[in-house]
């Protein structure tokens, strides 16, 4: 009886602690989430602008971008960049260089396909003049890379491995073999994890099943059919105790990055695809036989490289903006 009572008490304590953590996270989200009061906060505005900028870069990095694609998105981006300049231009004007570089690239590309976009050109010019930048070239958009170049760099040093990895959105028709996937999975097992619990799982999909998963994911418009191998990385909630509920995402994220680098080191192309969705959407994973106790971390699209292909530049921030020595 005494033991039963103490177990009951422990369960109540755990449930209470979980509610407190969930409530605290709810509070943090209401205050800091980028969907709420977005433009009242410079950081939220910058992050969401980077996101909008990336959809343009990503569109440019597809195999055959749709002629005249993205005009509404670019106009919307220009409107928000204008607002950014008015509100935060004095605090951090340099931020505008990267999205302006992407738009410059977009204008050049779209016109080269025979599509005239005078309104976008005019709005771009007005913002360039208003912000006082003379040129913003090579800051955004796409670059062409070759298979030869990647194969030389992907396995020669850690530095060149990191510098030569890109998200790739189209691949050759050659199938990715089970052997090479297993080799990458074995390399990724070297990932450190909290108390070496190794709570990650992987689910490999190939052919039409991979395309079905990618279509469900929804962040790959225009290149769903390219991804004929995909690896869904999950983390097992059973591996973690009540006071470390976010640890599944940390261990799973570390593992996923190692798997991406392992695949790249073996000469394959990859693209991480988000699983950051609401609970309602994630219920759809039951259709892919994913157990409920596994939370999705990321889907990794995998493929063999073409001889030449385009990738988004995806310019990185200066470390001064993301680091603080304490
Ligand atoms: C968690 C995660 C989710 C992502 N989701 C998508 C996605 O849904 N669609 C897409 O095209 N790219 C996606 N990406 C790729 C990013 O756009 C890309 O990593 C970023 O722009 C940096 O470029 P790089 O990978 O070429 O260095 C995702 C990347 C990560 C890490």
Question: How would you characterize this protein structure?
Answer:
The protein has helices at residues 2-32, 42-60, 71-88, 97-112, 118-131, 147-153, 158-164, 178-188, 208-217, 247-265, 279-282, 319-322; strands at residues 142-146, 200-206, 229-236, 268-274, 294-304, 308-312. The chain has 326 residues and is α+β, with helices and mostly antiparallel strands. The chain has two domains: 38-140; 144-311, NADH Oxidase. It has a four-stranded antiparallel beta sheet. Strands 1-6 form a two-stranded antiparallel ribbon. The chain is globular. The structure holds flavin mononucleotide. Flavin mononucleotide binds at residues 54, 58, 166-167, 219-220, 271-274, 298, 311-312, 314.
CATH architecture of the largest domain: 3-Layer(aba) Sandwich
The CATH topology of the largest domain: NADH Oxidase
Low-confidence stretches: none
- Alpha-beta content class: alpha+beta
Bound molecules: flavin mononucleotide
Taken together, the total number of domains comes to 2
Q: H/E order of the elements? A: HHHHHEHHHEHEHEHEEH
Classify the beta-strand content into a percent band: 5-15%
Radius of gyration: 23 Å
Distance between the termini: 52 Å
Q: Quickly name the level 1 CATH class of the largest domain.
A: Alpha Beta
Provide the helix percentage.
Answer: 40-55%
Number of helices: 12
Strand segment count:
6
Strand order in the largest sheet:
2-3-5-4
